[in-house]
Amino acid sequence: MKIKEKPAKGFTLVEIMIVVVIIGLLAAMAIPTMAVIRRRSQEKAVINNLRQFAGAANQYMMASGVTSVAYTDIVGTATDMYLRIDPVADETYTFIIEFDTTRISTAVNGRVISYQF
What we know:
The chain is of the alpha+beta class. The protein has two helices and four strands. The strands form two sheets. It has a two-stranded antiparallel ribbon with strand order 1-2. It has a two-stranded antiparallel ribbon with strand order 3-4. The longest helix is centred in the first third of the chain and has 52 residues, at about 15-65. The chain is rod-shaped. The protein starts with 12 loop residues before the first helix and ends with a strand. The mean pLDDT is about 80.
């Protein structure tokens, strides 16, 4: 009577290498896509900040009876701020909105992002 040997349990080196290669290919495809998604989401957040600033500027001009408003008039210190805008991509907001202005812009990572209102 022959005794059957139990087959060895585990993975071979070739199987493990194939899995590593597949994971590497998937990562190589996903990383550039994630960078594009991150850039687009930052741009949308900046556009939303510009939209909020434009609305606050219009409200400030109507409430104060002025025809222009500076960024520092709307975004002030913690106790007297009219609007809080948090930068999301190291952008800076330092503009003046005139009553007849229809566009505000800011620079983000070397590119200009505008909001037309």
